[in-house]
Amino acid sequence: MPKLTVDGIEVEVPAGATVLQAAEAAGKEIPRFCYHERLSIAGNCRMCLVEVKPGPPKPQASCALPAADGQEIRTDSAMVKKAREGVMEFLLINHPLDCPICDQGGECDLQDQSIAYGKGHSRFDENKRAVTEKYMGPIVKTVMTRCIQCTRCVRFAEEVAGVEEIGAIYRGENMQITSYLERAVTSELSGNVVDLCPVGALTSKAYAFEARPWELKKTPGIDVMDAIGTNVRLDARGRQVLRSLPRINEDVNEEWASDKTRHAVDGLVRNRLDKPYVRVDGKLKAASWEEAFAAIAKAMQGVSGNQVAGLAGDLAEVESVYALKALLKAYGSSLHEARVDGALYDVASPASYRFNPTIAGVEDAKAILLVGTNPRWEAPLVNTRIRKAIKKGAKVYAVGPEVDLTYPVQWLGADISALNELPEALTKAEDVIVIAGMGACLIEGGYAAARQVASALNAGFGLLHTAAGRVGALDVGFTTEGGFGAVVEAAPKVIFSLGVDEAELAGFFGGAFKVYIGTHGDRGAHSADVILPGATYVEKPGTWVNMEGRVQRTERAVFPVGDAREDWTILRALSAVLGKTLPFDSLAQLRSKIAADHPTLAEEGLAPVAALDAAPKGGDVSGTIVYPIADFYLTNPIARSSPTMQRCSAELIHGESFAEAAE
Amino acid sequence: MADAAHIPDEAETRARWGGFAWNAENAEKAQQILARYPKGREQSASIPFLDLAQRQVGAETNTQGWLPVPVIEFVAKQIGVSYMRVYEVATFYTMFNLAPVGRFHVQVCGTTPCMLRGSDDVLAACKNKGLVKGKTTPDGLFTLTEVECLGACSNAPMVQINDDNFEDLTYDSTIALLEALAEGKPVKIGPQIDRQVSAPEGGPTTLVEMVTENHDYRGRW
After folding, report:
1. How far is the CA of B136 from the CAs of A564, B54, B106, B144, in angstroms?
2. CB–CB of A503/A339 below 8 Å?
């Protein structure tokens, strides 16, 4: 533990820390461009120069200098000031003065730091260098003349995203950052380089010239594109969310977000259901709320018990699921199911369906067995954690069809029966975790087989969910013995669907009266008899439970479009029309009811649950695994309505070419 | 980069070079090169492999060789690293040609010492023989590139043609050199004047007594 002084303040830092980190520990801000705490150290921007004693009589790059015992660091001396001014002047020599037309303006590291540490003028009279634009795909817009070659994007692509497709070509003044042969970067995390870029060289293509950062209202939110529960900041102007940026949460998303999290927000204003619809003579007709409720009341006449069923879709938050369950209970129905994808797994105790090793805990595993899951698509930020585990020496084994997970994997076979013959290296390993995906749970007995393997290996067991609302719905007990199949078998007369768009309900419940409470004119709405327009995840305060069981609450960023309402208020209003008034009138009342019934949902954060009980019994299983996600970019109605996601899908999954011709 | 050669169309090079593989002799050399580096450090072989590949392309096309994209990708596959990492190396070093060159790659040094000693004359000679910077002559013989210091300043001005240096040039000797090369006549490598490597012109100017026999200078100390 080296002890050193920074500007006379004594600090003690862990061994291996750098001078820059020591200065931060002392509360001193060190300007930097290339240094990023989650990436390897490059030391090429030279902005973090400090004066170090003992050492050579010149400023030194603090980001790459290990802190040592007895060092005296000065960050406020004349030498440091002059060095920073000099570096800044050099950086600005080739940086265009196009801040007024640059999307980074207002949130630009170079802009901020040149004001704080720069000289205010330049002595450079020559022409500036210019670099041609590079094509990097549908997410990242490039203006490479602005690049200061910090190489953060190169390091991110290699180290975190695991796609070595960004690099620096040529040399010296001609050095250029580009993707390989200017092809689209094939990563579902490519949007993060936009945040990493300290200047306006890499900016968001979908958000180009949309707004200035100071015009935006920022609301903390939780992303629902996957079950990770990425913490996001929703930037809205007027009634539209213009972008979604990750917030730092070390336990969940660190500071990354997948491209779907970032860019599906343009689907929030397209293809929306903004008024109720009622099916008249086989055609959906716009209606008022009263007419829609009357139509439902008519269908509900004489219906009782298990003749009415409820289904919760992928994007349903805890409050509306609870409200729907309460309404069904008022009718005496226990037919409610959240596992609408047909996957079957044990829901007896929370531990049996949670991602028990926790997302951050994946990093500490020594061996990881993936059963029927493609984490790169189902949970990209779990995939980055697996990459970190591999960096620490972990080995990854997988049962399922071979896909590129960005790291070396020992594939054991595409058939789930491969679980019977695990390699010796895995059976003898310590700190094993078994990650089972929906691909395994879709096979009969697949879940039990994965659990048995986990207990045989004495391993941690985690179920990798793909839907943001699933664990929350399971937590409030929105399940039926036998799963989705049992609901289908019961042949209910009326079905309430909370945004079920991933299952073709018309095929399962041909004659039933279907009430769809949702946001987009997608599959669910097409087959509905009554459509009640609901609110998306940015338009309502809600409680979300991510795959590891972490309870997270969001606030409303914008109001729902048109006549749309928050889902639980729709159910509350409907219940009054049906004569089964639900016992809550405000969100606070609803939440206190939820907290009383389900104490784990009372507090934000990860509530501890009872340990896994004995693995369920099951015979031999076999069957070829099919991953649940066929197209990463189009997994929910919001993403399907997003032009950016459609473009990503066409270009990155289906190989259509959108590369712009050279000018 | 304004005068850089135009990188050929990708589809065309893929059709021509997509099936590139080591020939028998180079496959053996490649094995030897790879054996120099410890296991897991195959990336270290990037530069020697690219050089070997460029020479093989040169041999196949009867030129000095270049590195089409499929050949770069072949090298990357050989050493098990991503295409981008090898592409970066190939673009970084000016010795790797990203566009086809002629049989003789004339690299004229234009850095200060050579310029002071008359590299303008050398370039003028090249120009008068029909060589254009960054271009290959129509007969496919010469490609002219102006390069930065090649480290032979004591013999300025100089050019590097293929793997050899030709030094102490004048306008006339450059013309003569280019003509000899074009006609396939043997040429003298190194200084083009009466001089042994970088030793003083016209014999030594110091320690002259040492030229013929061992001489004891200690008496003069």
Report:
1. 69, 17, 10, 7
2. no
pLDDT, position A660: 56
Instruction: Tell me what ipTM this predicted complex has.
Output: 0.88
Helix (H) or strand (E) holding A475: helix A470-475
Select from B81, B85, B92 the Cβ nearest to the Cβ of A171.
B92
pTM value is: 0.91
Question: Rg of chain B over CA atoms, in angstroms?
Answer: 21
Omega of the bond leading into B157 within 30 degrees of 0 (cis): yes
> Hey, are the CB atoms on A167 and B84 less than 8 Å from each other?
yes
pLDDT in tens, A194-253: 999 999 999 999 999 999 999 999 999 999 999 999 999 999 999 999 999 999 999 999
Closest by Cβ to A167, choosing from B10, B69, B88? B88
**For residue B4, is pLDDT > 70?**
no
Find, in chain B, the residue whose alpha carbon is nearest to that of A171.
Answer: B92
Contacting residues of B for A169, CB less than 8 Å apart: 87-88, 91-92
pLDDT of A661 above 50: no
A256, HSE (Cβ side, Cα atoms, 13 Å) = 30
Mutate to test the interface with B, among A127, A173, A178, A181 (most CBs of B within 10 A): A181
Quick: pLDDT tens for A533-573.
999 999 999 999 999 999 999 999 999 999 999 999 999 99
DSSP characters over A379-419: -HHHHHHHHHHHHTT-EEEEESS----SS--EEEESBGGGG
CA nearest B98 in A: which residue? Answer: A170
A vs B, Cβ pairs < 8 A, gives: 31
What residues in B contact A174, CB-CB < 8 Å?
1
In the three-class reduction of DSSP (H, G, I as helix; E, B as strand; rest coil), residue A306 is classed as: helix
Task: Inspect the interface and report whether the beta carbons of B84 and A174 lie closer than 8 Å.
Answer: no
Residue B94 distance to chain A (closest CA, Å): 9
- A156-183 residue pLDDT tens: 999 999 999 999 999 888 899 999 988 8
